[in-house]
Amino acid sequence: MAADQPTIVATSGGFRAGRRTNLEFHGLVRHAVDLSGVHGRKPRLCHIGTALGDQRWFNADLSEAGQLAGWEVSHLNLFTMPPTTDVPGFLREHDVVWVGGGSVANLLAVWAVHDLATALRGAWQDGVVLGGVSAGSICWYLGGSTDSFGPELRVITNGLGFLPYGCGVHYDSEAARRPTIHAAVASGVLPVTHCTDDGAGLVYHGTELVEAVSERRSGGAYVVRRDESSATAQEEPLDVRRL
């Protein structure tokens, strides 16, 4: 099975602490699996942990979360080398590709070396649902704010651009996120920018934003646009469906 159209779930969430495991898959990852349309067998999720340097301990936590959920979880590690010479084929074997958080700047640099953008675009167009959290959200857009370079946020503009917008993550939990996004949009460094509070996610069909969702009782989502007459950023809250 595959999603009936190219689908991305870009989030500031997806995991939670487990009762007997370090991690469990939370509502946003489960929603991505639901959108893939899989039924009659175990869902197949590919985790890409480049932004954390392919930490094997974190891979183990997600594999354990997969066992708990009844899913097949595999990992596309790029350190020290990819697991296959056919990365596009490897990705297409899965229902969902979920990209973890960490350094989006390092992620994009490593992906460029391996031409992963081409493989991911092909999987997306073939109906594999793409998703992720934090760095794994920003990567799908033209750019966004990041702490990849240090505690002072900077704006990157070399995202994959599957989604023709800017991205703001952790919008409610890190004080510098909102003003950094507003400044980038007001100055024209970022275009119209889509933002998520912790626990919230945005669902796209093709490049169209179709829904904002949250795995928490709280957690909002927003669109930030430049007002040309005043050269300021204007923020609009979105309706959010609680999963």
List the helices and strands and how they pair.
Blueprint lengths: L6 E5 L3 E3 L5 E3 L1 H10 L7 E5 L7 H14 L2 E4 L11 H6 L3 E4 L4 H10 L2 H10 L3 E5 L1 H4 L4 E4 L7 E3 L9 E3 L8 H11 L5 E4 L3 E6 L2 E7 L6 E7 L4 E6 L2 E3 L1
Descriptive account of the structure:
The protein is α/β, with parallel strands linked by helices and 243 residues long. Helix content is 27%, strand content 30%. It has seven helices and 16 strands. It has helices at 27-36, 56-69, 87-92, 104-113, 116-125, 135-138, 177-187, and strands at 7-11, 15-17, 23-25, 44-48, 72-75, 96-99, 129-133, 143-146, 154-156, 166-168, 193-196, 200-205, 208-214, 221-227, 232-237, 240-242. The chain has an eight-stranded mixed sheet with strand order 5-4-6-7-1-12-13-16, sandwiched between helices. It has a six-stranded mixed sheet with strand order 9-8-10-11-14-15. The longest helix has 14 residues, at 56-69. The chain is globular, with a radius of gyration of 17 Å.
Number of helices: 7
Proportion of residues in extended strands: 25-35%
Low-confidence stretches: none
| Overall pLDDT score | 97
Order of helices and strands: EEEHEHEHEHHEHEEEHEEEEEE
Number of beta-strand segments: 16
Global outline:
globular
Give helix % range: 25-40%
Structural class: alpha/beta
- Order of strands side by side in the largest beta sheet? 5-4-6-7-1-12-13-16
Distance between the termini: 23 Å
Main sheet summary: 8 strands, mixed
Q: Based on the structure, what is the oligomeric state of the protein chains?
A: single chain
Rg calc: 17 Å
